[in-house]
Amino acid sequence: MPNLEHPAYPAATLLHLESLVPCRESQVSMLLSIFGERQQFSFPSIFIYGHTSSGKTYVMQTLLNTLQLPHVFVNCVEYFTSRLLLEEILIQLQNSSSETEQTSHVPCDNFNDFVRLFKQAVASRELQDQTLYIVLDRAEQLREMEANILPAFLRLQELTDRNVTVVLLSEIVWELFRPSTGCFEPFTLYFPDYSIGHLQKILSQNHPSEYSADFYAAYINILLGVFYMVCRDLKELQHLAVLNFSKYCEPVVSGEANERDTRKLWKNIEPHLKKAMQTVYLREISSSQWERLQRDDGEPGQLKGLSAHTHVELPYYSKFLLIAAYLASYNPVRTDKRFFLKHHGKIRKTNFMKKHEKTSNHLLGPKPFPLDRLLAILYSIVDNRVAPTANIFSQITSLVTLQLLSMVGHNDQLDGPRYKCTVSLDFIRAVAR
Amino acid sequence: GCFVFKPSPKKRRVSQKTANNFGERKDDSEDTELRFVTCQSLWNEIKSETEQIQEDLNKQLFDNLVSFLRRSHSEFQEKTTEWTCRMKSKEIPTAALVLGVNVTDHDLTFRSLSEVLQNNITPYIALLEAKDCPGIKNLMQKLMGQLMNCYIDVDSLEDEDYVPVSQNRVRCSMTSLINWYESVTKKTDSETPRKKRTSSSRHWQSPPVVVIFRDMESFTTKVLQDFIVISSQHIHELPLVLIFGIATSPMIIHSLLPHSVSSLLCIELFQSISSKDHLSTLIDKVIAFLNRRSVCELKHRVLTRPLKADLSEVFEMESVPESCGFWLCIVEHFYSQPLSVLCCRLVDAKKRVDSLSHNQCENIRRLPSFRRYVESQVSEKQIALLTTDSYLKEIIQKLLEDLHVYHENYVSVLRCLHVFTSSLPKYPLGKQIRELHCACLEDQVWETEEYESSLQLARMLNKSDLVTMLQQCVEIFVSSSGKEFDKTVEKLKEFLTQFQKLEAEAFQEQDVSVSSQKELQKKTDLYHLQKTLLELKESRRSKKLTKFEMLRFEVVDYIDSLVRNYLVPADHKTLHEIVYFNTASVLREHLNAAPRIALHTALNNPYWYLKNQALKSDGGTISNKAPDICIAYKLHLECGRLINLVDWLEAFSTVVMAVEGPNADAASSDQVDDIIHARFIRAVSELELLGFIKPSKQKTDHVARLTWGGC
């Protein structure tokens, strides 16, 4: 295992850092060597990518905080326009320089302003030529802002002529970022997924003070055995570990087993975890409900999950409308005559063909159909006469707002609107019953 | 609009608060004001009552929600540093409020919800609608606007120095929201000791911020996702609670949000009662209410009509009586029936009878039910009734009283019958009391097949059920105000005591049968065995009518007689026209708007709406005095899918020129007049606007017809 070594920083700090970022030592040392010493110019832009919860944000934050490097940390989802983003960077810069006086809010509309204001801010901060790090989390959002934002950030060092490094954090690869006009290529760094061993190590690190580390590690081992197949998200696993830990401890607390009795404990917790996988993990029931269940020792069966409530109550004609829409979406137009007319002539024996059609139609998904066809089918499937009243039309609209139907094409197209049926066969079966 | 046909004076009248229009229809303008006032007071009573009912129905749901909200941020309050709390990833507490498609009015529900929350939990509530939030930016703007305004609302009376910040100057970001929240909570913190804990004492130190998404389905996925991701990052600083208003099913959460986002939420489900239950409780209560107040028994008949329609056809979405139907019934009744003056409390009605004018008396004499009554009297009385107003009034008072008593009894017996029928298998007479009610009003209920079969079933009830039912019936009759039921109650109680006696006897009988069984076991001889078996069988057959069964028959027959006595349909009662509204066809016309049909009538037969004598035509012909668009429309009806514009213009000008007749002969020869041309173009473009035709690219100078059903 590579120990972190760098001449610019004291060994104690590095050691502390290493304990904070388990399983990411190689990435950290790589970053440290790119960063160099405080006053040295670093690479203008660094692009770090890796799967969800592979520690990108956490590592960057701990690294910058522990080594006390000057930095600005911004989440691009939160600051959803370029203006908000740039202003936020400037505000963070100003606040860290002069915490006592509230600097007035400076509007910053474009990148040109930003560069100018940025220079001022850096000058006022007296950084003693230290490298300033701007970390942009969830950088994929940058692509949706103005076209110049991303290339400009990549070249910020050059544009401002200051000692600054921009770090982009993202879950997707650099190739998806690259603008068509070309740009400065950042240094890309990949954070690989944690392996099961890594997960075990990280999760075991934060054991509760009441119990020994070994005991907790054994618990984590069981937990991973159940959940690793479906979930490798560290955050989620951590959450699940905390939720179910009290159940694991139950035999120990009641004195039925001691901490070493792993087999007994495993027997106790395993079915419980499996249940958790089907409910809490899928957010069928919320974690607070789960905790309450644990406390009251109730059966999770009493609590119905979200998916259990699939029944949708619809007005009488809406049901027929929906069924008609489904038929219109999945039947080809030419079969209408055969299905919905009383005297339709002979049905040709094309059984093989029909079978083939049916399967493919369901695989192909719903097809759009015009309003008139929907109404025609409606009239033929409803037994008694239906007048095309305003009610029917308004119910079509309300079905669209409920997202059971969807409108194809533009909203403003008044003549001949076309719809699609977006519900599944099971749903229609339930409605038709 | 949808109600193009039948100019309905309802709204105008109500808004003007004058009763002038009330009498405009017929020349009998008597008592219009009185009628109007009665109508309004009645309506107000009903309205307040239904609102009360609604509130009660929602109470349970709201209580649950409030307790959820209280729970949700208790950790935030305590700032616990326990291991579990430290380690757990903080989720946003979320309430998924499933209201159902058919439920009355979501707007109303949400308004009362936010009121409740405001009173109990937090002053910081934002209600977001999908149509206001096409993007995350709009959402944040809306959210902040609502939150910061609500702050001003709450404290506006107390702080004069608070300067409202203009929306533009505030940065639309979560940070400014958090800053705002901090400043607000700090302010109340510092203020509370000074002030005598007024409004803030109801809330906690840091009340949660509640964000309600009114129509979850219509929000775009991206907006919701972004908002949730952003707010989850600041959940430590800003105690946020989300409420999703869902119309369909909670599955929509999973289909809208990916797992990575929904894992940030801590969703609990709250379901409002289904609309059917809602409706039936409402109707039961309203019936009970009308009974209690005995204001007027109007519109029962009619009540059932729209309700039937509601349930089976269209209106389920908004089937509160408030929604048009009920209101319309009342208004229509008071509007069209001059005698509805008498439709009020019995005491008032008697007074009003005294002051009836001669005209009104004539009106009464004209009522079919009254005529029937007169015909059944002896001849002197007939003359007196038809000529002497004072005598007539006397009789009317008596009849009204009868009607009143009838109604009181009716409701009690109806409930009693419902007790019986509602527990029968397959519910031949319906599960809900309203279905029974409909059946009884429709016709003589005892003549129907369903009634017959339900009686049959009732004769097979077991004892314990029967006893509990009888007890319920006794309760109903005791609580009812009808005077005639003393005997009935006695009779029913007698039945009950008989049942109890039977129980005692039953024990003995059991002993007998057991002994015979024993005898059976003793005899091993085949002949004897056969004999005893036969005997046993015989005795069983004859025993078929045990005392219990006899009694059961008696009970059922008694109920049957009650039904025959009291559940006579209202039509058979004299003067029922005064209180029962019966023209459901008018209602249907008002409620089931048919825009296409209305449009067609308007264009095809303009006389229908314009009432201009010149436009009266026999149907087939096209009058040249009709508006241009009507002519164009009629001509286009004769065409196929594609219409040649030139031909159309030709036909149009021919029809229009006919007005000028012979003197314009010369002009019409070859060239179409410019003015007519312009009129034609205008008519065609109007038709295009109405959606009957559209320009076609298939053929030049042709337009395509959009309405189907053409040749």
UniProtKB/TrEMBL annotation, chain A:
UniProt lineage? Eukaryota, Metazoa, Chordata, Craniata, Vertebrata
Keyword Nucleus on entry? yes
Molecular function GO labels? ATP binding; DNA replication origin binding
Quaternary structure, per UniProt, is: Component of ORC, a complex composed of at least 6 subunits: ORC1, ORC2, ORC3, ORC4, ORC5 and ORC6. ORC is regulated in a cell-cycle dependent manner. It is sequentially assembled at the exit from anaphase of mitosis and disassembled as cells enter S phase.
* Protein encoded by which gene: Orc5
Q: Does the keyword Nucleus apply?
A: yes
Q: Where is the Origin recognition complex subunit 5 C-terminal domain?
A: 314-433
Q: Which family does it belong to?
A: Belongs to the ORC5 family.
Name under which the protein is recorded = Origin recognition complex subunit 5
Limits of the ORC5 lid domain: 216-283
Role summary: Component of the origin recognition complex (ORC) that binds origins of replication. DNA-binding is ATP-dependent. The specific DNA sequences that define origins of replication have not been identified yet. ORC is required to assemble the pre-replication complex necessary to initiate DNA replication.
Superkingdom of this protein's organism:
Eukaryota
List each coiled-coil range.
Answer: none
Q: Where is the signal peptide?
A: none
- Cellular component aspect of the GO annotation: nuclear origin of replication recognition complex
Q: Which residues form the Orc1-like AAA ATPase domain?
A: 21-167
Which keywords describe this protein according to UniProt? Answer: ATP-binding, DNA replication, Nucleotide-binding, Nucleus
Q: Which InterPro entries match?
A: AAA_16, ORC5, ORC5_C, ORC5_lid, P-loop_NTPase
* Gene3D superfamilies associated with the record: P-loop containing nucleotide triphosphate hydrolases
Q: Single Gene Ontology BP term?
A: DNA replication initiation
TrEMBL record, chain B:
Source domain of life: Eukaryota
**Subcellular localization, per the record?**
Nucleus
Which Gene Ontology cellular component terms are annotated?
DNA replication preinitiation complex; nuclear origin of replication recognition complex; nuclear pre-replicative complex
Sorted alphabetically, which InterPro entries does this protein's record hold?
A: ORC3, ORC3_ins, ORC3_N, ORC_WH_C
Broad class of where this protein is predominantly found: nucleus
- Which keywords does the record carry? DNA replication, DNA-binding, Nucleus, Phosphoprotein
- Where are the bilayer-spanning segments? none
Taking every annotated instance into account, which residue ranges of this chain make up the domain Origin recognition complex subunit 3 insertion?
353-584
Domain Origin recognition complex subunit 3 winged helix C-terminal: residue ranges: 596-708
Q: Which residues form the Origin recognition complex subunit 3 N-terminal domain?
A: 1-342
A Pfam family cross-referenced in the UniProt record is ORC3_ins
Q: Which GO terms describe its molecular function?
A: DNA replication origin binding
Q: Does the keyword Oxidoreductase apply?
A: no
What's an example GO BP annotation here?
DNA replication initiation
PANTHER family, alphabetized: ORIGIN RECOGNITION COMPLEX SUBUNIT 3
- Quote the subunit structure annotation: Component of ORC, a complex composed of at least 6 subunits: ORC1, ORC2, ORC3, ORC4, ORC5 and ORC6. ORC is regulated in a cell-cycle dependent manner. It is sequentially assembled at the exit from anaphase of mitosis and disassembled as cells enter S phase.
The free-text function statement in the UniProt record for this protein reads: Component of the origin recognition complex (ORC) that binds origins of replication. DNA-binding is ATP-dependent. The specific DNA sequences that define origins of replication have not been identified yet. ORC is required to assemble the pre-replication complex necessary to initiate DNA replication. Binds histone H3 and H4 trimethylation marks H3K9me3, H3K27me3 and H4K20me3.
The family annotation for this protein states:
Belongs to the ORC3 family.
Under which name does UniProt file this protein?
Answer: Origin recognition complex subunit 3
Can you name the source organism? Pluvianellus socialis
